[in-house]
UniProtKB/TrEMBL annotation:
Domain HTH araC/xylS-type stretches: 162-259
DNA-binding as UniProt keyword: yes
Alphabetized UniProt keyword annotations: Activator, DNA-binding, Transcription, Transcription regulation
Domain of life: Bacteria
Record InterPro entries: AraC-bd (IPR003313), AraC_XylS_family_regulators (IPR050204), Homeodomain-like_sf (IPR009057), HTH-like (IPR037923), HTH_AraC (IPR018060), HTH_AraC-typ_CS (IPR018062), Tscrpt_reg_AraC-type_HTH (IPR020449)
Organism: Malaciobacter marinus
Signal peptide interval: none
Spans through the membrane: none
Keyword Transcription: yes
Official protein name in the record: AraC family transcriptional regulator
Length: 259
């Protein structure tokens, strides 16, 4: 079970034409609109959610509205999740509150879309967690009123990255999760993702996939079968390995020249 999303409700709805009476949640509501429109109100403010917009309702806020051919994805993260990410970023415990409720920000839209797709497609836990933290960190950093602090030089210790690299390579067949990787570096999840991507140029998930593929190639060249190599380096099965291999090389691993 993904601890970050335990007991979290998700919705993926196509072409809704419903009236939503006044109500509130004890969680956040965070979602994106793919098509159509939601004409809504939130604490005496009216707004429209349309294509490529993202929307947020704070816990306890009264809201409702009318949808027209509205296709969207929603999830209802607990207060604790956003509060923890806020603390990871700003080093103080607060509940982030959003004054705006609809954002015409395509960067935010596609970050949330990426998270939803990873969740719905049941991707690796690390990929789901990373895209979740990436999207919510962006939302908090750009749309809460907190004065942003600079952390450019806080975690420049190269030993942290060296330790992460060695930990991953020594345990390549492990089913990694973000909490485990961050804890190994004694960092918050937010800062681990930021520092790792800064140093390596790719996310931890992409790095692990790349390293697994590199190791599998060497095994296959030494006459290990595709299925055995896939399992030995940590892929769920041969099809999982083949799919990721093709993303990098454009062809299937069956074409690898063996010694």
């Amino acid at each position: 079970m993904n601890k970050l999303l335990k007991d979290t409700t998700f919705e993926c709805v196509k072409l809704s034409n419903n009236n939503f009476s006044k109500h509130f949640h004890d969680t956040y509501t965070i979602g994106i609109t793919y098509e159509g429109v939601l004409k809504s109100f939130n604490t005496n403010q009216k707004y429209d959610s349309f294509r490529y917009t993202s929307r947020v309702n704070n816990p306890g806020e009264l809201h409702g509205g009318v949808s027209s051919a509205w296709s969207h994805s929603n999830f209802y993260p607990k207060v604790e999740l956003l509060s923890n990410i806020y603390e990871d970023i700003f080093f103080e415990k607060k509940i982030p509150i959003f004054q705006k409720h609809v954002f015409s920000d395509k960067i935010l839209f596609f970050k949330l879309h990426n998270f939803f797709m990873n969740y719905y497609n049941n991707e690796d836990i690390l990929l789901i967690q990373s895209s979740l933290v990436d999207a919510l960190s962006y939302l908090i950093l750009n749309y809460t009123s907190h004065t942003k602090k600079s952390f450019e030089n806080i975690f420049d210790d190269k030993r942290v990255i060296k330790n992460s690299y060695e930990f991953i390579c020594d345990n390549l067949d492990t089913d990694f999760n973000l909490e485990q990787l961050a804890r190994n570096s004694n960092m918050s999840k937010y800062h681990f993702l930021r520092v790792f991507k800064k140093e390596f140029g790719i996310t931890p998930h992409n790095f692990i996939i790349n390293q697994r593929i590199n190791k599998a190639i060497n095994l296959i060249k030494n006459d290990v079968s595709l299925s055995q190599a896939s399992l030995q380096v940590g892929f769920n099965d041969q099809s999982h390995f083949t799919r990721n291999f093709k993303k990098l090389y454009g062809y299937t691993p069956s074409r690898i020249n063996k010694k």
